[in-house]
Design goal:
Length: about 80
C-alpha cells in the first residue's frame, strides 16, 4: 500500500560528505515532523561551553578545510584548541 506522505528516512551513502540537494540537510527536521526536543538539545550543547569558556581564552592551532555532514555539521578534520 503506497503512502505518499510517509516519512522514509535514508542514511547518506558511504563516503558522501554533503547532501545531494542544496537545503536538503536539516538535523532537527522542519514543519509538522520537526523534532520536539530541539530546544533541549541545543541548550544541552551550549551549557558546558557557558561554564568553561569564561575560565580562559580559547586558542585554535589550525583551521579545518571544510565541513562534514552527519547528524550534526562538524569540521571535516581535527580542530585542535587549547583553553588558557
Amino acid at each position: 500500500m503506497a503512502r505518499p506522505g510517509a516519512l522514509r528516512p535514508r542514511p547518506l551513502p558511504p563516503g558522501a560528505d554533503r547532501p545531494g540537494q542544496l537545503g536538503a540537510y536539516f538535523p532537527f527536521g522542519l514543519g509538522a515532523r520537526a523534532c520536539l526536543g530541539i530546544r533541549f538539545a541545543l541548550r544541552e550543547t551550549t551549557a558546558p561551553l557557558e561554564l568553561l569558556l569564561p575560565l580562559g581564552r580559547l586558542e585554535f592551532h589550525s583551521r579545518p578545510s571544510g565541513a562534514a555532514y552527519s547528524i550534526v555539521v562538524r569540521p571535516n578534520g581535527p580542530t585542535p584548541a587549547v583553553l588558557r
